[in-house]
Amino acid sequence: MTTGTLITYFTQQNEAREAFKKLQQKGYPRTVWLSKDSAGGIQRVDPFPWRRVAGLIGSFILFGTLAAAFVLSLEGRGGISSEYPVVLIPILLAGMIGSLCGAGWIRRSRFGVELGLIENHARWLIPGETVLILQAPIEELQVPLSLLREIGESSPAIFVLHPGRVSPAGDAGVHETPLNPAQLEDYAQRLAAEHQVDSEPIRDTELLKRLERSRHWVHRVCVDLSEASRLQQSVPPTSEWLLDNEYLLESNARDVLLNLPWHYYRQLPVLSNESYRGMPRIYALAWELAAHTDLRVDQENILAFIESYQSAGTLSIGELWAVPQMLRMVLIEHIQQIAGQAQTELREREIANFWANRLITANRRDPNHLFSLMAELTETQSPPSPYFAL
Fold first, then answer.
1. Which range marks the domain in which residue 296 is found?
2. Which of 58, 64, 166, 253 is least enclosed by beta carbons within 10 angstroms?
């Protein structure tokens, strides 16, 4: 599950303490409480170090106990000496090994709030202010968010930050100039003259793997957008369309994977041209058609484009049969870019709102702290997104 961050600023320290205790009682261990006094000193309440110590001690005792039981069983059979130091050594070694294993497991597990996050927010605090940082799966933030909104008489400033994501396909969106029908037919003929078919068959399933990655990426973004809407956050305009049509994308992706089995896919002619090297020729045609029609493909322009291409070059029966699947694949990849833009917009809007609060709070409560915060903003958000100007 995706981990989100819930950040809450309190003006009253006692309200922050109350919220911290209630979150611990509700079962949210990844919570840290930070407060800055008028002199700039930081008070930190983080239960994770104590849990780490308890985990190390527990691992030591568990492995030591197992080793003791093993040693005693050997002693009963007369396999080893019963002298005290000899028995103690393997028990201590096992306990140390257990502590190391426990430390490695805790280090790799997602326990406690990220240390970098704690250090950053300690610097961004205004004197006399308290911040409560909680990390949990995005799907589980509704309960703590509702609890925090009910704490105290003064409403705390609450921010939800989704994790940053990097699109698996990078920047592969549509950047081509749309063509009218006559230009599109001429372009298809030029492609037929330029395409060079490789005699080697397809040796990998990279294109099908890309489809799987696009499919999972869109699903994750839709989960983020759905949870953001449920948490009453402002979401991008494209969110509604993505959420309403995710099931269509999922069904089309399954159709492509069902109708392009490996033994059939590897028989499709591939191109040796630089831009599509190793890719099926029919995939390149589908991509070019989608790109030059601004993704507005229909029966008329599909047939016209394929017929124009075949007037200068011949496609195999297998390629013609694969046209619908390749078009679906290309459109799903482009939808992935739209989803990526929506997720980036959501994340940047959250960050912009957070920093707006920091700067406004510093200007009101401690103007001397404003310049250091602006330096932090410049360092962490360079260059700033357009949402900082809204």
1. 181-343
2. 166
